Amino acid sequence: MTQNSMGAYKGTFGKRSLDPESLETAYTAEESSSNRIRVTRFKREALDAAAGGAAEAEQAAAVKSPAVDLKTADRDIRPAAKKAMDIYFTKDYVKVNELIENGEGKFFEIKSKYGHVTHSAIKREIHTTINGEKYYDLISPYGYGGPVIHESTNKEKLMSEFEDCFSVYCANNNIVSEFIRFHPIFQNQEDFKGIYDTMYLRQTVGTDFIKFEDTFQNEFSRTARTKVRKRLRDDRFSFHIDRGFKNVEPFIDIYNLTMERHNATQFYYFNREYFYALKDKFGDDLMTISVKFEDKIIAMGLYFLSGDVIHDHLNGTNPDYLEYSPAYLLKYASMKWGVENGYSLIHYGGGVSNAEDDPVLHFKKRFSKHTEFEFHIGKKIWDREVYDTLCDMRGMDKNRDFFPAYR
């Protein structure tokens, strides 16, 4: 028997030239106190002055709905309305990430007769000054992001408008460079290839809830199905689903145990303020799943609920119970709940490296036999002169396999 949406489960299987027309409606961006780009008319010479400072980046090194082929990652598979719902594109998400990214969350919005674009990023100070002047760079918040088109009547002119506006913002705010982790599901890099230097980095995976009549049988590997069935037959194991992130402290404890086991860098030990900020900002758009052995929590997962997509955000397992493979029950529980509640897929992300045999990716593929996505990054040098100067001052090779090279 199973319960509905929460509680205990014992499951069954089941450059931008401007033509005369666009000059009449061209815009520049001025940042308001709320960190939003307000679109205002500007004088032509302001744009011309700013345009000279932009440079291209160096190439980087390294309720159910109709069925849809989620494995095809070279096209936009989700409508603009659902992009607007995705947590990674929201102002609240970038602001929460100030707590872990050592920077200031910025949300930008451009609206005109040509369409609507939003963009969010973390603005980080570069701790090297030039003639006493401070400079900054931009990076996507933890996870995914980048600019995204919500609607468009003329995509070419909208992209030109976005680049003009954003280059003015960067020039006025001493922004040197920008690094973007584009969204694997929405493939938003496709719209911005003419502005950013984009490249494919690695694969990500998920479980599709709508392609198959039996998601468990078709998406989970034989090994995964066997492990799940074994635990479901054992009355000592159960899983519990909660909306609203009510159990923050237990999650932090078990998550930190996992970071210790993996010898994670300090960055991944997210402070308590971060978790409570997620709870405060997103409420019922969060979900946790707990796997229990008898009455003891031995594994937990934290998930974002965005439109019809579930994002598997963070997980943890008590190392004393690894022999029971509780992570398999987490994957099963999230799949089962998603199917029963009308979601279309859960996205697990990718590995920790670009290697095809990355062990984390290999594990996730056990639940993703048919659902793959392409993860792209984007790079942009907004001020080439300052970028090169910073590299020289720090003794860094401008062409090294890390972007930005001065860091």
TrEMBL record:
Record key words, sorted: Transferase
Transferase recorded as keyword: yes
Principal location: cytoplasm
Entry GO terms, CC: cytoplasm
Classification via InterPro entries: Acyl_CoA_acyltransferase (IPR016181), BioF2-like_GNAT_dom (IPR038740), FEMABX (IPR003447)
Cellular location(s): Cytoplasm
Domain BioF2-like acetyltransferase: 221-353
Taxonomic path: Bacteria, Bacillati, Bacillota, Bacilli, Bacillales
One Pfam family recorded for the sequence: Acetyltransf_6
Organism: Salinicoccus kekensis
Official protein name in the record: Acetyltransferase (GNAT) family protein
Coiled-coil intervals, chain numbering: none
GO molecular-function term, one example from the UniProt record: aminoacyltransferase activity
Example GO BP: cell wall macromolecule biosynthetic process
SUPFAM superfamilies: Acyl-CoA N-acyltransferases (Nat)
